[in-house]
Amino acid sequence: MGGDRRSPRRRALKSPFPLAQQSQKFSDDLAALLNRTVCRNVKLSSVISNEKNPRSVVGYQITKHVLDARVGIPLTVDNKAPRLFLGLSYRLAPDSASRYLMVVSSALVVTADKDLSEELFHYDYERNKSDGYPEAHLQIVATSDAWRKACTRPDGTSRKVARLHFPVGPRRFRPTIEDLIEFLIVERLTPGHPGWAEIVESSRETFRIKQLRAAIRNDPETARRMLEEIDGQS
């Protein structure tokens, strides 16, 4: 009756992006992946940060007052004491069109202790990284005589291996937590649940499809040309 009497301006307003709900789903899916592969009974938290442009942080034992990863997730599938721990942190936000959830940064740290002080290596991703280092990179805490020689620069200064940022691919094809889980199990650094490989592959495929869709949104013209080429061959 009477139609929509709201003003055109009010009708044009978009619903706010459901950041809390989307982030909670991301957190739940991530916890399920871990608990079906290299962990047991792990619960992750999704916390909305108090920033001018709200973002969410997904991590382990974090709060509104402590958003950084400070406690490692035990990598164990039974009652045995874990040998390794996983430090995990994802910062999430709506994309530029406020249509999709976007990973702004992530850190995956493997350590030999629960307090994350005995680091072995970590994968970092930081969208639009501004310091000249690659957005996605690997850093390894290790040393050897060969590395000491290699890290001594021509000007006499030196750099620790742990400070080197090894590139690991561009934004759309960066390593994911699925790759890290596979590495830990295949190298027998930590045990995995039965059927872990199928679970990892399914989760990896979901990530791949999301990245493909994002790549198409960013470059639709190339996608159209490719589809035309495929259609022309059929």
Q: Tell me, rounded to a whole number, the average pLDDT.
A: 92
What does the main sheet amount to? 8 strands, antiparallel
Shape: globular
Distance between the termini: 52 Å
Beta strand %: 15-25%
In helices, the fraction of residues equals: 25-40%
* Uncertain spans: none
Radius of gyration: 21 Å
| N-to-C SSE string, H for helix and E for strand | HHEEEEEEEHEHHH
Q: Can you count the beta strands?
A: 8
DSSP helix count? 6
Structural class by secondary-structure content: alpha+beta
Count of discrete domains? 1
Short account of what is shown:
The protein is 32% helix and 20% strand. With 234 residues, it is an alpha+beta fold.
Descriptive terms for the model:
eight-stranded antiparallel beta sheet, alpha+beta, 234 residues
What would your notes on this structure say?
The chain is an alpha+beta fold and 234 residues long. Helix content is 32%, strand content 20%. Strands 1, 2, 3, 4, 5, 6, 7 and 8 form an 8-stranded antiparallel beta sheet that branches. β1 and β2 form a beta hairpin. α4 runs antiparallel to α5 and α5 packs across α6. The relative contact order is 0.11.
Helices and strands in order:
Elements: H1 8-12, H2 19-35, E1 45-48, E2 56-59, E3 73-74, E4 85-94, E5 101-111, E6 119-126, E7 136-140, H3 145-150, E8 166-167, H4 177-186, H5 196-218, H6 220-233
Antiparallel strand pairs: 1-2, 2-4, 3-4, 4-5, 5-6, 6-7, 7-8
Helix pairs in contact: 4-5, 5-6
